[in-house]
Design brief:
Helix content: 25-40%
CATH architecture of the largest domain: 2-Layer Sandwich
CATH class of the largest domain: Alpha Beta
Number of helices: 9
CATH superfamily of the largest domain: Dihydrodipicolinate Reductase, domain 2
Order of helices and strands: EHEHEHEEHEHEHEHEEEHEEEEH
CATH topology of the largest domain: Dihydrodipicolinate Reductase, domain 2
Number of domains: 2
Distance between the termini: 26 Å
Shape: globular
Number of strands: 15
Strand content: 15-25%
Structural class: alpha/beta
Largest sheet: 9 strands, mixed
Length: 321
């Protein structure tokens, strides 16, 4: 069976990556509009109602508009924007989040793809909150660094194009300092946190790859969990999953240096638990490709589930792209 796909916003970074990862598959056909036609609301509506699955790679307001234009009850949607990530009637597109999440996505009509920072944050926090080792009202802090590709075409041009109107020369920049980054509601909701976490993102002068860090004072937590306990909870939660893995616990001296580009070209998210020698402190890190598991790779994984094919279809070869 061939599934027809319409990527609304196919010319953007995420849309282009999704298209590239799907090309060559004989179980997919693409519906597309010309550059002129995609500005025509009526033609867009026609495509949105003619496809089997629409993938939205648009700004939030445009994504909401696209959803509002869908009248065909058989059309299913994957939205890569922030618009519907905590909205009623939408399933969260993180298949590994809970044992039943992949089945929810497979049967869903409306799937909200995860944010790049958010998927790593939720991957760390959700199992700990669910297990009870991390109280839901705990004051959580999250620090992260991403390659500039996550900022879209304008930011990419700022770093790469010497003739860009807004050329960026700095090697590193911290942003979101109003503590209101758009991923925060998603992180809080799907992690199960009652208290809004402090989230401080940053961009560095490299194109692709991400590290998200969650530091914890273990000795201050109720029950004073050990580093081994934290590591065991995460390892058990993601046991047997292809795309979320947990590295060996590292405690005390000898911790390696993490490279945010380690998993570029993959759909993997790898979690690390590093702890102090006395076991009173730990930092849990998630490493991923912000354009892979943090965007287009995750969308393709969800698409595979919705199509009823193995979720790894076309994703184990991502490193070849």
């Amino acid at each position: 069976m061939v599934t027809s796909i319409f990527i609304d916003g196919a010319e953007g970074t995420t849309g282009l990556q999704i298209r590239t990862r799907l090309e060559g598959r004989d179980d997919i056909s693409f519906l597309a509009l010309s550059d002129d036609e995609r500005k025509d609301r009526e033609k867009r509506a026609g495509m949105l109602n003619a496809c089997d699955i629409a993938i939205l790679c648009l700004p939030d307001d445009a994504a909401r508009e696209s959803v509002s234009m869908i009248e065909n009850p058989d059309v299913r949607v994957i939205d890569a924007s922030t618009a519907h990530r905590i909205a009623d009637g939408w399933d969260y597109g993180f298949p590994e989040m809970d044992p039943g999440q992949a089945a929810k996505i497979a049967n869903s009509k409306r799937v909200a793809n995860t944010g790049c920072y958010a998927v790593a944050s939720v991957a760390v926090l959700h199992p700990l909150v669910t297990d009870g080792v991390l109280p839901s009202d705990w004051p959580v802090s999250i620090n992260a660094v991403s390659g500039y590709s996550g900022g879209g075409k304008k930011l990419i041009a700022g770093f790469e194009d010497p003739n860009a109107v807004e050329k960026i020369d700095t090697p590193f920049r911290v942003y979101g300092l109003n503590l209101g980054h758009k991923h925060i509601p998603e992180i809080q909701f799907w992690s199960g946190l009652e208290r809004t976490p402090i989230f401080v993102p940053s961009i560095a002068r490299y194109r692709e790859g991400m590290i998200v860090q969650v530091p914890l004072h273990l000795a201050a937590l109720p029950g004073k969990p050990t580093p081994d306990a934290i590591h065991d909870i995460l390892s058990t939660h993601y046991e047997g999953r292809k795309f979320v893995t947990v590295a060996d616990l590292v405690q005390g001296e000898g911790a390696p240096v993490l490279d945010p580009e380690d998993l570029n070209g993959t759909n993997e998210l790898r979690l690390h638990v590093y702890a102090s020698k006395d076991g009173t402190q730990a930092v849990i890190c998630g490493v991923l490709d912000n354009l892979g598991k943090g965007a287009s790779g995750q969308a393709v994984q969800c698409l595979n589930l919705m199509m009823g094919v193995p979720e790894e279809t076309g994703l184990l070869e991502m490193a070849l792209l």
